[in-house]
Amino acid sequence: MQRLIALMILLIPGFIAALGIKWMRDTLFGILHPPVPLLWLQFLLGFLLFALGLGFIGGFIFHRDRKRNKVQPRFQKK
């Protein structure tokens, strides 16, 4: 049950990061999506979504590995 909850917690930021990549890619091809009025703003929002999603996933994995003592000594809690 805990693994299922962990998977669900990671899927939502994964979809957010994927949406960010899609918006950045669409900006390069000149495709504007309705909620955003400007291409450069769409790219900026896409980058922000990508960074937030990736940061959450990275932080989740880092926290889990730190709890299990699977990180380098400089990252372990003192």
UniProtKB/TrEMBL annotation:
It comes from Anoxybacteroides amylolyticum. The chain crosses the membrane at residues 41-62. This is DUF2627 domain-containing protein. InterPro entries: Uncharacterised_YqzF. Keywords: Membrane, Transmembrane, Transmembrane helix.
